[in-house]
What does this fold into?
Amino acid sequence: MGRAEWSLVVRFGSNRERRLWYWTLAIVVAIFATLGLAGALAEQLSETGLTTVGFAAAMLLVGITVVIQGLRTKPSGVEIGVVLGVAVIYLMVLVRMALAERSHLIEYGVVASFIYEALKERKDHGRRVPVPSVLAVLATGVVGVLDETIQLLLPSRHFDPVDMVFNALAAVMAVLARVALARARRRRITIPPEARQVPPHGSGDDQHPG
It folds into this structure.
């Protein structure tokens, strides 16, 4: 591949896409850099009784990430309903998980959200990106495999294929939440403003001369 062709491959569709990829890289590096500390940190949180607080703060981060990226304007009732529905689903899943499994759902939920948003931004600016949602899940899965592979080299960690499943689950949940928000927003935009207004009772054709 020549230099010109390579330049076309790596060229970003917009400054926002570039920033999203840089943020994604920073998050992934942070996850990999703390692999050796994750177990000790979880144990310390458990001993000090801060597990619930830390978990709630991390879930708030995931929620903020999904909502901020999914909602750029004042949300409609449908969009608020979608957000609440997603929150309930996350809560139902997370209460059934152990602490280690929850951490995967949190970390890779954020990663998947950023990857999906970067791919969508790239597609919106004319680049060829087939099915950004599927690509985001696959890319997040690859990051999860790298995560587990690195743990083979760490004496305090071990390779666990189940963790890769949770990483993929986190990606699917985050991307589905983002897609649901996008569809709710498109539905609001495509409905004409006059169609959203409910006519007053007894107006229009319902009125008959006495």
User: Anything to note?
Assistant: The chain has one domain: 13-187.
